[in-house]
Design goal:
Blueprint (H helix, E strand, L loop, with lengths): L1 H35 L3 H14 L4 H13 L3 H14 L4 H13 L3 H14 L7 H14 L3 H14 L4 H13 L3 H14 L4 H14 L1
Length: 212
């Protein structure tokens, strides 16, 4: 009888442990689903709970930082990404999102360093490679390094050619570098994708005047 009770106890313990593991997995999935559904605050809360249970859970840091950036909590995203990188120094997801946080905080040099680390380590098919090149281009525009911006933004639109706003920024970088024919080509691409783009239309008019 005692043996049966002990066996039943161990069976119940294993069952409860399995349920807890399953619940943790559901929680992790929920945080990502909340993020994709634009419910960033709730996603952050789920990730915080996960990290209280396991402070080394890198996926929770990643989803939390994505949500913090989308929620415009850039200083918190920078802090959390830095914490996560202390645990996993080469996690490319955290490196890229740290670059974004620093970019929005106006920390151009720090942001550029992270984006360069990301594109150097990520495969060409990496989900955020185009985004990283785009941010690099924007930083170069901030620094009035327009030829460099042209190179970075050209790489961005090569990765994601359907982003009309990126083509506009490429056109602007080329316009500022006085490469007017190339600027016109970029503005034309933007207008093909979005004929209602005011920025692309005005940019095309400006460079057309320069080419006459």
């Amino acid at each position: 009888m005692r043996y049966r009770l002990i066996s039943a106890f161990f069976a119940m313990t294993i069952f409860c442990a399995a349920l807890c593991a399953q619940s943790a997995q559901i929680a992790r999935q929920d945080a990502l689903v909340l993020y994709h559904n634009g419910r960033y605050k709730e996603s952050i809360e789920v990730c915080e709970e996960e990290l209280r249970e396991n402070p080394n859970r890198i996926d929770s840091y990643v989803v939390m930082c994505w949500s913090l950036v989308k929620n415009r909590q850039y200083a918190e995203a920078e802090e959390r990404a830095t914490q996560g990188l202390r645990i996993s120094p080469y996690d490319l997801r955290l490196i890229e999102i740290l670059g974004e946080a620093k970019y929005y905080l106006g920390k151009n040099s720090g942001a550029m360093e992270q984006f360069q680390r990301y594109v150097a380590g990520a495969p060409d098919s990496g989900a955020r490679v185009g985004m990283a090149y785009y941010f690099m281009g924007e930083i170069f525009i901030r620094q009035a390094r327009y030829q460099h911006a042209d190179i970075a933004l050209s790489s961005a639109v090569k990765k994601e050619p359907l982003m009309d706003s990126w083509w506009v920024r490429l056109g602007y970088a080329r316009e500022m570098a006085e490469n007017y024919r190339e600027a016109a080509a970029a503005y034309d691409e933007a207008l093909k994708l979005n004929s209602a783009s005011v920025d692309a239309y005005r940019g095309r008019e400006r460079v057309s005047a320069k080419l006459q």
